[in-house]
Write a structure and sequence with these properties.
The complex is a heterodimer of chains A (122) and B (180). Chain A folds into 2 domains: 56 residues, 434 Repressor (Amino-terminal Domain) (Orthogonal Bundle), CATH 1.10.260.40; 37 residues, no CATH class. In chain A, 61% of the residues lie in helices and 0% in strands. Chain A has 7 helices and no strands. In chain A, helix 2 crosses helix 3 and helix 6 packs antiparallel against helix 7. With 180 residues, chain B is an alpha/beta fold. A 5-stranded mixed sheet of chain B has the order 3-2-1-4-5, sandwiched between helices. In chain B, a hairpin with a 3-residue loop joins strand 1 and strand 2. Chain B is globular. Classes of the chains: A mainly alpha (122), B alpha/beta (180). At the A-B interface, helix 1 and helix 6 of A face strand 3 of B.
């Protein structure tokens, strides 16, 4: 199994669509395909408007186009959620805290420890 | 738990030729990530290896698949044989190198070794329509081999690896590192 996904699958999506780097650069409002090449070589991350433009062009969600970036962000967020759970568990109890913990446990990928808590707000 | 499906092993399939090499990157038998031809200037193995090394650095493949040219029937030139042997040195500790005999690819695609290069390329183009535009015309006896066949050969080697489920079904197939 691969250790992780590629940061993005822009080259695969572009080639599948039959677009050249210059074509894609034009659609993204760039001057030349150099920027597209840098995205494809994982040397540069596009900004949010470019990511949405890429979603619109290829008709795929950003988390598929940028699978590796998404996976890394997801893992880091899960780790932070686990740390926040540990921190919040030291504070008393209450309905709002239980709601918060249910959400954090979903993010962290853990089963909620308190089954009588409110359902996840997600 | 990620919402994304678990990825298959990433395979870099290579088909060295006289002027460069064809390559294909696959993540499973239905996911073609990249493909193309890289030319190596001056016909030097060092340039060829450097370009292969660039692809390994970019894609960090789990497996490198390349032709097993140690057969008596292999018609590969000495230079290409040397390149194939040296590919093992480019692999990282996480990257396995698998040798697949060309006869095995023909068996997988056509059965009993009857498939021609063009037939295999046509089947590859049917499986991955995105590469169809690179399919060269069928070679006539007086024509030199079109370099674009290297792409289809590389994809065919990669697909063979997945179709055999990464299992070593040939007695001649073994990691290149052990053979080098």
């Amino acid at each position: 199994m691969p250790q992780r996904r590629l940061p993005n699958y822009l080259r695969a999506s572009r080639k599948q669509a039959g677009l050249s780097q210059d074509d894609l650069a034009f659609l993204l409002g760039c001057d030349s395909g150099t920027k597209v090449s840098r995205y494809e070589m994982f040397r540069r991350q596009p900004g949010l408007p470019t990511v949405f433009a890429l979603e619109a062009i290829f008709g795929k969600p950003a988390r598929e186009l940028f699978a590796g970036v998404y996976e890394e962000a997801e893992q880091q967020t899960a780790e932070r959620a686990r740390r926040l759970i540990d921190r919040l568990n030291k504070h008393g109890d209450g309905p709002q805290l239980r709601r918060k913990l249910a959400l954090l446990q979903t993010i962290a990928g853990d089963a909620p420890s308190n089954s009588d808590g409110d359902p996840s707000p997600r | 738990m990620s919402v994304l499906a678990a990825p298959a092993p990433r395979v870099l399939a290579l088909d060295p030729m006289s002027r460069g090499f064809g390559y294909a990157v696959l993540e499973g038998p239905t996911s073609l990530v990249d493909w193309g031809i890289r030319n190596a200037p001056n016909d030097k193995p060092r340039g060829l290896l450097r370009r292969i090394s660039e692809l390994i650095d970019l894609y960090h493949p789990d497996v490198i698949v390349i032709e097993d040219c140690r057969h008596d029937r292999s018609r590969r030139r000495q230079r290409v044989r040397a390149v194939i042997t040296q590919v093992a040195a480019l692999a990282t500790p996480q990257t396995e190198v698998q040798l697949i005999p060309a006869a095995l690819v023909r068996d997988v695609f056509g059965g009993c070794g009857t498939a021609t290069k063009f037939k295999i390329a046509t089947l590859v183009a049917e499986h991955f329509p995105e590469v169809e535009y690179r399919l060269p015309p069928e070679r006539k006896p007086w024509m030199p081999e079109d370099a674009r066949f290297a792409i289809f050969d590389a994809v065919a080697f990669g697909l063979t690896y997945f179709l055999l489920d990464g299992n070593d079904t040939s007695a001649d197939r073994e990691p290149l590192k052990n053979a080098a």
